[in-house]
From TrEMBL:
Residues 205-310 form the Calx-beta domain. Keywords: Calcium, Glycosidase, Hydrolase, Repeat, Signal. Residues 1-27 form the signal peptide. Its EC number is 3.2.1.21. It comes from Streptomyces lannensis. This is beta-glucosidase. Belongs to the glycosyl hydrolase 3 family.
Length: 1007
């Protein structure tokens, strides 16, 4: 799902222009303007931490070209700032004040103004200021805009009261959401998109005098005050000032309850009065208004009592506080009733508008106002990748989500939100969480019990922050490693993917859903239905993507055997939600051609809900309906009629809700379809216990990132390591050896964790808590010297370890051909060549997919596929130093060259560098034997198969596999690789005798 990159591409603004000298007052009441930027050359074109002007944009073509130009008509001085632009994504410029100097204080002024040379293009230009934080790139962003609908010079005046907090993008996610004006770091402009233009600007300055209404504000401690019928709400009213100074003048707050759905006198006691905060009152002083409710015997939905506040002398609250008398006495609120009866009762009471709201999911940062949760009766919110609170802590997550749930209490039936997040390898949006290996590494472990444990740890950490829903696991079967999200797959074999679906029980608990209301379980999502891993290279039409979101062209038999099979397993395991794929499905012979999955009613309604019996709900992917043909109304109608129950419409939630209502009223979507969708959604909310406990249960928060949780991740990292080559027993290392460590991924936690970590695409560097491979080797007691680029002297070492591979990426952006390849970087190749040319060496490839290493394989003594091991580099050190044996097996085929792609187990032509299922071991004694031994193992496997003894069967096949690998050594040929790979598939499908027979074939082919 596209996440933060789309947040950022809405506009990535980040700075302001520098304050120069403070002017002297022109009078006692009105200060003289204070220059911010004169564009006479006093501020250079420069970046942080220096004071300077700089440009930015979505790609290399988007940043504008700037210069200081002499203009005879300059409004001030001799020069003006001029620029040209032609922006396709987003672009603009910033002036950041020097980060090594104190921030500027703008609080004495009314606003900011500047001269603009109008082009009369009718375009809006965003203007942004930066408040608080450590510097201009770590501050809150406050924004407004002006329209270029004039010609010639015009002075644009913007009062500070016009600026609003940006909800679509914040570099730090927010500090205090208050425009304090006492710590300002500059400004930024975002230029129009889609036009070729030019501009000129001059004389940015502060103007006017701030009055108390700008410095002082009245707030309430909440916006919504739920109380049980007969209870009394306590509304705390406070006055505060910028800089926490006492108020200069009196502030009065007149209050009166009334105007809501509750009846004055019968439902609540009328209340009216005035609070006065005298001049000199300390900032933060509070008074309490009590609103008492009355009890009757009737069962009722929730009723509201707004408390209207009229403020004099300060800024009034942005929203009117509202007392809510809780719904009570209605059957759907009775937890003793069966879920189906509760659903039926609630559904019978809901309006079409409320039902449409339940089918709508918005991005939390895309809310125009939090009040929209109640206004549109929203059913769900999500955090996309990188959409986090500030600070990014468990406490802040829980507080944020509780604030959203509180808003839902202001609706008629107080239906709680279901909040979702992409926790695809641990609670990966949360700094300090336990980050597991990505699915490709979990598939390499061949350990279903461990997969379940990783799911359980993830569920525990996610639920402890107030989130009951995880958009995982990905059940994609990756068939082409040029796909940028292939690491989200457990592997290329559907049988392997099915075996790893124990992760669903780790996330959700028992298949009947009885564990979902526990504080350590979450609703899981099987994605992306169906065929996302089978798209053809070059078939994508999404932006610059080459394969992601493309077309999967298969026969009906291939569809069933490869891509659909894992979903039947997921349904049998009780999966709660399913997410369709962005991709299109083209089933050969069905006459439909390529059809977007969000429009395939035959697959969603017919196969998933019908034949498979899926009784959860279907959630769309991020803005996925926008890719359907036709106008927006047809997007909505097509997807809903195809069986999509809830739409992830991050920023267009208003349009979706109103359009869906219109489509129902027009008869293009039936009321029955709506009721089915809403019933499915409500069922999961009841199972999760959200009606009884809508707020975060943080009892498990102390376990987030705990030693016990990290131990599971460490085990997963160790078991995921696949030893592809080990000439002369280079591995495991001995602590007595002097080890030379090099390579770009030896000491980079961000590269080690990959995409979907803290942000959508991930990032290199330290952005969370964990241990790099280098740190882990040192902690293991190794005698280690590190030189990233292998530039340090190479003599005097017993062995080298070169850790190379990929930098982070996620869906689409990571596609090969979209700025990525399967080749090691030039720096990594040089490090391998230097170290391996000077000493015995082991090369670890930290990546989300195989890297092409064939031309260097002969010079490498030991080769390890490290995948993306997560935060626990100690697991990698455990196998390097022999604390644990290497036991991992390839979850995908390792190709010799890119020209071999696609290449997968079972292909008619199969001659890889290393076959699917390959994986050497250490510490474990490889069984001795020959063809006779294999014959005996085949007989034993047949007995185990007949007896239904899975563990015995697996042990027997493993012995045969190790024996064959020892015989083969480095003499891997096509005649060996094909039956070897087939054997692992047969093992996973429980055909132990046939697996040994295939291994015997490989043994004989080895000569």
């Amino acid at each position: 799902m596209r996440r933060t990159a789309l947040l950022a591409s809405a506009t990535l603004l980040t700075a302001l222009l520098p304050l120069t000298a403070a002017g002297s007052a022109s009078g006692a009441d009105e200060p003289a303007p204070v220059p911010v930027d004169r564009f006479e050359g006093e501020v250079p074109f420069a970046n942080q931490p220096a004071d300077g002007i700089f440009t930015w944009g979505g790609d290399t073509d988007d940043p504008p070209a700037l210069r200081l130009s002499d203009r005879a008509d300059a409004p001030e001085g001799a020069k003006v700032l001029t620029g040209t632009y032609e922006i396709s994504g987003y672009g603009g410029f910033t002036h950041d004040f020097a980060a090594d100097q104190p921030a500027h204080d703008w609080s004495a002024h009314k606003g900011i103004r500047f001269w603009w040379d109008g082009q009369d293009n009718g375009k809006k230009i965003a203007f942004e200021i930066k408040d608080g934080g450590a510097n201009g790139e770590a501050s809150e962003l406050w924004t407004t805009s002006f329209t270029d609908d004039f010609t010639g010079w015009k002075q644009i005046e913007i009062p500070f009261t016009d600026f609003t907090y940006r909800t679509d993008y914040q570099p730090v996610g927010g500090i205090d959401h208050v425009l304090g004006l006492t710590q300002m770091w500059g400004y930024a402009l975002t230029l129009p998109v889609g036009v070729k233009g030019q501009f000129a600007m001059d004389d940015v300055e502060l103007y006017g005098k701030a009055d108390q209404s700008l410095r002082a504000s009245v707030t309430t401690d909440s916006v919504v005050y739920p109380v049980r019928e007969g209870g009394t709400a306590q509304v705390k009213v406070s006055v505060a000032t910028t800089g926490s100074a006492p108020i200069d003048e009196p502030v009065t707050v007149a209050y009166e309850a009334g105007g809501g759905t509750a009846a004055s006198g019968s439902d609540y006691v009328p209340v009216k009065g005035t609070i006065t905060f005298p001049a000199g009152t300390a900032s933060g002083t509070s008074r309490t208004v009590q609103v008492a409710t009355r009890k009757d015997k009737a069962a009722e939905s929730a009723e509201t009592v707004p408390l209207e506040l009229t403020v004099t002398g300060a800024k009034a609250p942005a929203e009117t506080p509202e007392v809510v008398i809780d719904a009570h006495g209605l059957p759907y609120l009775d937890s003793r009733l069966p879920v189906r009866k509760r659903v039926a009762d609630l559904l019978s009471r809901m309006s079409l508008e409320e039902k449409a709201g339940q089918m709508t999911q918005a991005e939390r940062a895309g809310l125009t106002s939090q009040g929209d949760i109640a206004t549109y009766a929203l059913g769900s919110l999500l955090s996309g990748g990188g959409s986090t609170p500030t600070p990014n802590t468990p406490e802040a997550w829980a507080k944020m989500i509780d604030s959203f749930q509180l808003r839902a209490q202001a609706t008629r039936f107080q239906i709680p939100l279901i909040y979702g997040v992409d926790a695809v390898h641990g609670h990966n949006n949360l700094a300090g969480a336990t980050i597991m290996p990505h699915n490709i590494g979990i598939g390499a472990t061949r350990d279903p019990q461990l997969a379940e444990k990783t799911g359980a740890v993830t569920a525990s950490e996610v639920r402890a922050t107030g989130i009951p829903w995880d958009f995982a696991p990905c059940l994609c079967v990756t068939r082409d490693e040029r796909w940028g999200r292939s690491y989200e797959s457990f592997g290329e074999d559907p049988a392997l993917v099915e075996s790893m679906e124990t992760v669903i029980q780790g996330l959700q608990g028992r298949a009947d859903g009885r564990d979902l209301d526990r504080g350590d379980k979450v609703l899981a999502t099987a994605k992306h239905f169906v065929g996302d891993g089978g798209t053809g290279y070059g078939s994508s039409t999404t932006g610059s993507y080459t394969i992601d979101q493309g077309v999967t062209k298969v026969t009906r038999q291939q569809l069933e055997a490869v891509h659909l099979a894992p979903y039947q397993t997921a349904v049998d395991r009780g999966i709660g939600t399913v997410m369709p794929s962005y991709s299109s499905l083209d089933v050969l012979g069905d006459g439909q051609g390529p059809v977007k999955m969000h429009a395939r009613a035959d697959m969603i309604n017919g196969v998933l809900k019908g034949r498979m019996g899926f009784d959860g709900f279907v959630i769309s992917d991020w803005n996925a309906i926008d890719q359907l043909p036709g106008d927006y109304a047809s997007h909505v109608g097509t997807a809903v009629n195809a069986g999509v129950d809830m739409m992830m419409v991050p920023y267009t939630y208003k349009d979706f809700s109103t359009t869906l209502i219109d489509e129902v009223k027009a008869g293009r979507v039936s009321g029955k379809r709506i009721d089915d969708a809403v019933a499915r959604i409500l069922t999961q909310k009841f199972k999760l216990g959200l009606f009884e406990h809508p707020y975060a249960d943080t009892g498990g928060a102390d376990e987030i990132g705990s030693a016990a949780h990290r131990a599971v991740a460490r085990q997963a990292a160790a078991e995921s390591q696949v030893l592809l080559k080990n000439a002369n027993g280079v591995l495991p290392l001995k602590k007595s050896q002097k080890v030379y460590v090099a390579g770009s991924n030896a000491d980079d936690l961000g590269n080690q964790t990959g995409g979907w970590t803290i942000t959508w695409q991930g990032a290199s560097g330290d952005h969370t808590q964990g241990t790099t491979v280098l740190q882990a080797m040192r902690r293991a007691g190794g005698d280690v010297t590190y030189s990233k680029d292998a530039s340090a002297p190479l003599n005097g070492y017993d062995v080298g370890v070169v850790v190379v591979g990929e930098t982070p990426y996620a869906e689409g952006v990571g596609d090969v051909g979209n700025g990525h390849s399967l080749q090691l970087s030039a720096a990594d190749q040089a490090a391998v060549d230097k170290v391996c040319g000077a000493m015995k060496c082991a090369v670890l490839i930290v990546s989300g997919r195989p890297q092409l290493i064939g031309d260097r394989l002969g010079g490498i003594d030991a080769l390890v596929a490290s995948w993306l091991p997560g935060t626990e580099g100690d697991g990698v050190a455990d196998v390097l130093y022999g604390k644990r044996p290497f036991t991992g097996q390839l979850p995908v085929t390792w190709p010799k060259s890119e020209s071999q792609l696609r290449i997968n187990v079972g292909d008619a032509s199969y001659d890889p560098q290393f076959p699917y299922g390959w994986g050497l071991t250490t510490l474990t004694r490889v069984p001795e034997g020959n063809a006779v031994t294999l014959k005996a193992l085949a007989l034993a496997a047949a007995v185990a198969e007949r007896a239904g003894s899975a563990q015995a069967g697996r042990d027997i096949v493993t012995k045969a596999r190790l024996l064959v690998q020892q015989k083969v050594g480095s003499a891997l040929t096509a005649s060996v690789a094909a039956p070897f790979a087939d054997a692992d598939h047969l093992l996973l499908t429980g055909k132990y005798a046939a697996a040994v027979a295939k291994l015997t074939e490989a043994y004989r082919a080895a000569g």
